[in-house]
């Protein structure tokens, strides 16, 4: 009997899980190369990858770049307080919990049905100090106490686009309010040629923070293709040299822009306000083929 149940569990674990959630059709697809790893797709768009046996494994290139930021936010192993705007499969929260035990984290994920699906199919380590709130990212951020967070990560997409109200200077004002002195903000941005959205986001962050860096595939920075870029911002010098080394050594190497080169890249773009904000551009269909 025990062997039969085990066989059934193993067979079930290898099957794709499909379920309608608030944001569309969610699919949890097993990774054939890693026994307890899954990819999360929403309406066909890849969102997250999780390895339950090795939560420190980051498969998606933009998540590895955010992982580098997490690694550099404090000395190795030191617990931090983090806010994640956008949860997906809770990949980055799991990564931080694995690499910085005893950290305290708040995840804000609007899609309550998705949270239930992830908790059921990809359960969190019960020892991880991760609290998940099902509400709008900006509303959830507003409830974070002043100066509480060492790190705020924004990775929010609805229909593969970042909602307009999470792209403005007023939104970044609340990020700054929630950050502790010396705290760090990191955002996953997506854009393609002519990169107007990305340039506007850099200009907006430069209007609020003293130090910026951008991590992206060189082809994305040259406007050759649609892709992700990780924007890092704070009010103290960034570990640019170490971030550059880590980004360059990735399986998909990235370039780090900062200082004058990043200012030149912005090309005179104006900061975004709530009144003028729009959703980030939709990716072309070919991105997910």
Would you give an account of this structure?
By secondary structure, the chain is of the alpha/beta class. The protein has ten helices and twelve strands. The protein has helices spanning 2-13, 61-72, 91-99, 112-121, 137-142, 169-178, 196-206, 218-221, 240-248, 259-266, and strands at residues 17-21, 24-30, 37-42, 45-51, 81-85, 104-108, 129-133, 149-154, 179-191, 211-216, 227-234, 255-258. The strands form two sheets. Strands 7-6-5-8-9-11-10-12 form an eight-stranded mixed β-sheet, sandwiched between helices. A hairpin with a 2-residue loop joins strand 3 and strand 4 (45-51). Helix 2 (61-72) runs parallel beside helix 3. It is globular, with a radius of gyration of 19 Å. The model is unreliable at 1-13 (pLDDT under 50).
Secondary-structure map with pairings?
Blueprint: H1 2-13, E1 17-21, E2 24-30, E3 37-42, E4 45-51, H2 61-72, E5 81-85, H3 91-99, E6 104-108, H4 112-121, E7 129-133, H5 137-142, E8 149-154, H6 169-178, E9 179-191, H7 196-206, E10 211-216, H8 218-221, E11 227-234, H9 240-248, E12 255-258, H10 259-266
């Amino acid at each position: 009997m025990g062997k039969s149940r085990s066989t059934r569990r193993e067979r079930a674990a290898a099957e794709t899980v499909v379920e309608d959630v608030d944001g569309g059709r969610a699919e949890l697809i097993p990774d054939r190369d890693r026994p307890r790893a899954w990819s999360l797709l929403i309406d066909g768009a890849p969102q997250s990858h999780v390895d339950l046996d090795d939560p420190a494994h980051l498969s998606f290139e933009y998540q590895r770049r955010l992982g580098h930021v997490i690694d550099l936010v404090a000395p190795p192993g030191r617990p931090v307080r983090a806010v994640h705007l956008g949860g997906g499969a809770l990949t980055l929260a799991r990564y931080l919990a694995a690499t910085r035990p005893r950290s305290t984290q708040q995840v804000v994920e609007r899609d309550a049905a998705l949270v239930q699906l992830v908790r059921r199919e990809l359960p969190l380590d019960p020892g991880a100090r991760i609290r998940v709130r099902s509400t709008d990212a900006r509303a959830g951020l507003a409830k974070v106490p002043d100066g509480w967070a060492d790190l705020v990560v924004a990775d929010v997409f609805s229909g593969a686009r970042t909602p307009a109200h999470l792209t403005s200077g007023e939104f970044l004002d609340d990020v700054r309010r929630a950050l502790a002195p010396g705290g760090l903000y990191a955002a996953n941005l997506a854009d393609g040629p002519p990169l107007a959205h990305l340039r506007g986001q850099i200009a907006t962050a430069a209007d609020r923070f003293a130090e910026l860096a951008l991590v992206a595939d060189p082809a994305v920075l040259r406007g050759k293709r649609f892709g992700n870029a990780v924007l890092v911002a704070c009010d103290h010098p960034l570990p640019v040299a170490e971030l550059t080394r880590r980004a360059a050594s990735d399986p998909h190497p990235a370039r780090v822009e900062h200082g004058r080169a990043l200012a030149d890249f912005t090309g005179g773009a104006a900061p975004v306000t709530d009144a003028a904000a729009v959703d980030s551009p939709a990716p072309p269909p070919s991105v997910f083929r």
